[in-house]
Amino acid sequence: xxxxxxxxxxxxxxxxxxxxxxxxxxxxxxxxxxxxxxxxxxxxxxxxxxxxxxxxxxxxxxxxxxxxxxxxxxxxxxxxxxxxxxxxxxxxxxxxxxxxxxxxxxxxxxxxxxxxxxxxxxxxxxxxxxxxxxxxxxxxxxxxxxxxxxxxxxxxxxxxxxxxxxxxxxxxxxxxxxxxxxxxxxxxxxxxxxxxxxxxxxxxxxxxxxxxxxxxxxxxxxxxxxxxxxxxxxxxxxxxxxxxxxxxxxxxxxxxxxxxxxxxxxxxxxxxxx
Length: 274
Description:
The chain is an alpha+beta fold.
């Protein structure tokens, strides 16, 4: 997940909005150089969207904001009937993208690009009202649609504020659970990031905040602990122990183990056997 950092004033302004239904096999439009933010919220089914080289599965009660001027496309067609709302908006102010919320000034609006709302009732009501205002025919409706856009963004901002601490914990625990189940395979920091749909640096920061060590260190610690247990309690060869503990080669395992424990794998085994 990333975060948009929009300077204020001026505030984002409305361009257009609607709702769509895709049926099995249909895809979102493939486009480059689209000049507006594209705010999508799915109510049924799932969209499979890629922005540049980052892929997202946007399921019911989840939303995604695509940035202007980047390449957006469906990496998979929808597999079932899928309903979603969308709104295009823009800002005349400056904006940037960060890996995590990074408030340095008071006049910053920080919005997540990918989010989930367990209770989206208010957001759905706003989208419905917004869609009913097209085409615009009165000055009051022109003002109302701008107010609704800001109300929609306020929901996201509030969600980020309430969610930030629990989100960090959830991400760290999800990463740890993934590592615990797959450490003996070729799991990597990047593969964890791909599975959890967050940048690897952000996941490592979450891990460090909750567990005191980075993702890479967590993997290494778990593999070392498993190797120690096998060396103490099994008759597997040292090469087998290295493979069963997730190391790619015996030489790398021996070097890493010796550096970590101060003893070679053979010396460690002999120390606990005799």
